[in-house]
Amino acid sequence: MTIRLLSEDVAARIAAGEVVERPASVVKELVENSLDAGADRIEVETREGGQDLIRVQDNGAGIPAAEVELAFRRHATSKLETAEDLEHITTLGFRGEALASIASVSRVTCFTRHTNETVGTRMRIEGGVVVARAAVGRPHGTELLVEDLFYNVPARRKFLQSARTERSHIDAFLTRYAIAYPHIAFWLSHDGREILATSGNGNAQEALLNVYGMDLGASLLEIPPALTEGQAIRVGGFVGPPSVHRANRGYITLFVNGRWVQDLRLTYAIIQAYYTLLPTKRFPVAFINILMPAEDVDVNVHPAKTEVRFRDADGVFRAVQRVVRATVMEEAPSASPWQAPPPTLPQDTSSATTTRARLAALTPTARQVRLPSTETDTAMPLAAIANAKVAPPPAVTPPPSEPPQVMGTLPPLRVIGQVATMFIVTEGPDGIYLIDQHAAHERILYERMLAAWMQRSIVSQPLLEPQTVTLPLADAGYLEELLPTLRALGLDVEPFGAGTFLVRALPTFLVHLAPADLLGDIVTADERTAVDASLEEMLVRRICKRIAIKAGQVLSREEMERLVRDLEQTRNPRTCPHGRPTMVQIGVEQLIRQFGRS
Ligand code: ADP
Ligand code: MG
User: Fold this and answer.
1) How many other CB atoms are there within 10 angstroms of residue 270's CB atom?
2) How far apart are CA 459 and CA 491, in angstroms?
3) Which ligand approaches the C-alpha of residue 75 most closely?
4) Measuring from each residue's beta carbon to the nearest atom of ligand 1, which residues come in under 6 Å?
5) What pLDDT does 267 receive?
6) Which atom of ligand 1 is nearest to 76's Cα?
7) Can you point out the beta strands (E) in 405-508?
8) Could you say which ligand is closest to the alpha carbon of residue 56?
9) Alpha-carbon distance 341 to 324, whole Å?
10) What span, in angstroms and rounded, lies between the C-alpha atoms of 507 and 459?
11) pLDDT bracket for residue 399 (50, 70, 90)
12) 376 — phi, psi (to 5°)?
């Protein structure tokens, strides 16, 4: 083929691909435009996960009638003039690409009226071409309807995930902005169902409760502004106390000068700040807002604008780490307003508020009825394991004992002791066996719980008082889908509206756990997208991970012996349910060789 210039249409669609990856990117760009336009009320509505329709409406400055067409041209922006302006960007947008990109891969209708003009404009663009335009009366501000996203890019359309997944991406984006911009009233609805409504009264803590729910939201500690007052790099936001942690990094959110960014190094700085405070392989919850001079951060790194470069990356790293560490170490529950009952209910009637009102009616405060949620509390005492044999109800004959173990199983092992409060050292016929106490216990619990489930013998125990758990909106939809399976596993949980769930009953061996922690782990496991033999197995694995004894737990000789004996009884004693080894063997031969004896 000969070399030729791409047609404008093809070039536009290629460029659009970098900005508009999925419906959530459209929401992001449009909401950022609304914020740049000075709106204090932003409404987002979607149909079919945004593939059929995304509507974003604001009460910002609007676009002057003479500039509406220009706004949809590539590299057309009101936010930047000279190359020097790029050195200190204070708006979220500046590339002049978003509207052009969105319009080239969808059918867009734009309604807008500028504050200084008396008449508004309605304009329709399909695949980047203006097909209709008229003057209309309307309040100032802008409303964009984006329909049939990717209708002319079948390749992209094919890669879109289910409406639910796309919705959760939108939820995750908008909820972050709702917390970072408490002065702005955000409203979100999917397929006619209201998902989020913040008051915009400027109370960040209220927005946090609204988005993260009572359980998580109320447990977070506010970073004292005094820690970086008057400094060039200021760090604010909220961080979880050491007792609150999650299975992955998904609950670490970073904003830089009002822009949500993804930054591996800063994420690491936050994790580092919790060094020795969290159990291994657990991650903190943090919502960090960094403010610094615009010229010290370069946002022109990628079309999606979620990556930034810092002039003094080390300085930012240190500031974040120091401030987070100081906040976490300072943790003084009684001094934090967060530990008090939630603030008095505002007067508006948003559904989130009514949920809170309902909650308040249900329990004095959600926190009062909670069990302590530290790892040591939730780790099952070993003594309880013996009784926790997910026993069948007394009237039922016990499950037939496992057939005698034949192949691949363990020889009898003699316990010698514990090393590093992580491993059990045992001796077998051929040398030393080091057992990972957490992995081994996970394996034992996993097989027992699955067996009990298959025999329909999981005993579910009603809670004295049903407990409410509120999950971040982005997780709540996922949990709802899991409810029937959880019920089969003995977890009686029902939806209660706006991300809140009512936990009515739990299997007997789980009743000692804080339901919020348990459900939190069930929805945040890393393997969420992995294909699995069965949903039940996956959920049982997650539950067992939560209840298994942890690294760092000191075990008595008796407890170690019971653990080893129980492990010998399993079908697959050599791996944990996630496939990692439960034990490492060092053969006598190897020892002899290493000592140079042969
Ligand atoms: P950018 O945000 O990088 O400038 P966009 O393509 O997103 O580029 O928008 C182009 C221009 O259209 C903006 O610079 C702004 O002047 C105008 N515009 C877009 N959305 C809005 C809005 N919601 N309210 C007012 N003006 C808007
Ligand atoms: Mg923009």
Assistant:
1) 25
2) 10
3) 1
4) 29, 33-34, 37, 58, 60-63, 71, 76-79, 93-100, 142
5) 94
6) 10
7) 414-419, 423-428, 431-436, 460-470, 492-495, 500-507
8) 1
9) 24
10) 5
11) very low
12) -65, -30
pLDDT at position 526, please? 57
Atom of ligand 1 nearest to the CA of 141: 24
The structure tokens listed for 63 are 């676009």
Tell me: pLDDT of 529 over 50. Answer: no
Which ligand is in closest contact with the Cα of 120?
1
At 460 the pLDDT is: 86
Q: Using an 8 Å Cβ cutoff, are 385 and 562 in contact?
A: yes
Among 475, 489, 550, 481, CA closest to 519: 475
403-406: long-range contacts at Cβ-Cβ below 8 A with a sequence spacing of 24 or more? 405/568, 405/569, 405/571
- 219 neighbors 240 (Cβ within 8 angstroms): yes
Q: What are the b/e assignments for 552-589, b being 16+ CB within 10 Å?
A: ebebeeebbbbbbebbeebeebbebbbeeebbeeeeee
Nearest CA to ligand 1 atom 20: 33
How far apart (Å, rounded) are the C-alpha atoms in residues 434 and 582?
8
3-state secondary structure of 505: strand
Q: What is the mean pLDDT of residues 280-298?
A: 92
Q: Which run of H or of E encompasses 288?
A: strand 286-291
What is the predicted pLDDT for the residue at 533?
Answer: 56
The alpha carbon of 20 and the centre of ligand 1 are apart by a number of angstroms equal to 15
Of all protein residues, whose CA lies closest to atom 14 belonging to ligand 1?
A: 77
- Give tens-digit pLDDT for 440-457: 999 999 988 888 888 888
Atom 23 of ligand 1, nearest CA residue: 34
Number of Cβ within 10 Å of residue 95's Cβ equals 21
For 55-68, the pLDDT digits (tens) are 999 999 999 999 99
Query: Contact, 462 vs 469, CB < 8 A?
Result: no
Q: Which residue among 77, 142, 300 has the greatest number of ligand 1 atoms within 8 angstroms of its CB, and so is best to mutate?
A: 77
Interval 463-520: pLDDT, tens: 888 899 988 887 888 898 889 889 989 999 998 887 889 999 999 888 888 888 889 8
User: What Rg, from alpha-carbon coordinates, does the chain have?
Assistant: 28
